[in-house]
Amino acid sequence: MDKRLAEEKSAPWMSVPRWAAANALTLAIVCTALELLAGVGYRLGWWSLGNGFLLLRYAAYGSIAAALLAFADLSLFVQSRRAVWMAALALIIGAAGAGVPAYYLYRGQHAPAIHDITTDTTDPPRFVDAVALRKDAPNPLEYRGASLAGLQKKHYPDIAPVMLDVPPPEAFTRALAAAHAMGWAIISEVPGDLRIEATDTTLLFGFKDDVVIRVRPAEQGSRVDVRSVSRIGLSDLGTNARRIRSYLKELQSRR
Fold first, then answer.
1. What does the alpha-carbon distance between residue 68 and residue 24 come to, in Å, rounded to a whole number?
2. Helices assigned H by DSSP within 11-162
3. Which of 27, 75, 107, 227 is the most exposed place for a label (fewest CB within 10 A)?
4. 160 has pLDDT over 90
5. What pLDDT digit, counting tens, does each position of 70-99 carry?
6. pLDDT at residue 254, as a whole number
């Protein structure tokens, strides 16, 4: 113990990394919490979407600063074991806090400015019961036609209907079960029209996107088409295409 105290007195600068590690860890935790709060606050009506995004941006900057401080602390100084663990944890949390917004930024730069995706661009499934729920939504449900279809084909060429070798009533039952498995809020299920409508809510900001599923008779059984439309935002960052892919995969797994 005396030897350790003597070393610290002879090299007082060695206590600096411990403080730096603690500060980096605190900053990383606070900024990560603010990133989560950005979406929660918007969902609770505490601030506008623009302010939520602004908070998310500055929290991401803080996460980057925390990660850089932790990296410098680990790289430049000889430290105690506790300081090493704090700096390492700060680096991990800070990198994660910066990485998530960076991922969405990357998606935004590479995704087309569309928010309406369907497996049938010629005759897209039509919403009926979701219309009333979208009366205040900035995005309309009218399909934009050839221009939208062209963008979808260019960026999401794999989005296509699924053929099931079962009669339409059974295909409808499978489609409904798959929609429930996705965790969507079912708006309506109309066996007579072979139509299902649902709403999916995104995790962080709670954006609501509406989905309509249509089943039609086909030569070999049934054809299932899906359409997913965001209520807000010019670009969906690829969310609707991923949602349709996930749903069709779930549907095809039900035999």
1. 9
2. 16-43, 49-76, 81-110, 146-155
3. 75
4. yes
5. 998 888 765 678 888 899 999 999 999 998
6. 85
Asked if 154 and 203 sit in the same domain, the reply is yes
Supply the pLDDT for residue 75. Answer: 80
Residue 122 buriedness (CB in 10 A; 0-12 / 13-18 / 19+): exposed
Query: What is the three-class DSSP state of 137?
Result: coil
Largest Cα span, the chain: 88
Q: Identify the domain containing residue 66 by its residue range.
A: 11-110
Q: For residue 168, is it within any domain?
A: yes
Q: What is the 8-class DSSP label of residue 13?
A: G
137 plus 104 within the same structural domain: no
Q: Are residues 93 and 47 in the same domain?
A: yes
Q: Which two tokens stand for residue 103?
A: 């991922």
pLDDT tens for each residue of 163-219 = 999 999 999 999 999 999 999 999 999 999 999 999 999 988 989 999 999 999 999
Q: DSSP secondary-structure letter at 45?
A: T
Output the six-digit token pair for 193: 């029209």
Q: Is 164 exposed, middle or buried (0-12, 13-18, 19+ CB in 10 A)?
A: buried
Q: How far apart are alpha carbons 139 and 97 in whole angstroms?
A: 30
Report which DSSP code applies to 46. S
pLDDT (0 to 100) of residue 118: 99
Contact 199, 212 (CB under 8 A): no
| 144 and 29 in a common domain | no
SS3 content of the chain, % helix, strand, coil (to 5): 55, 15, 30
- Tell me the pLDDT tens digit for each residue of 23-56: 999 999 999 999 999 989 998 999 998 899 899 9
Determine the Cα–Cα distance for residues 10 and 23; give it in Å rounded to an integer: 24
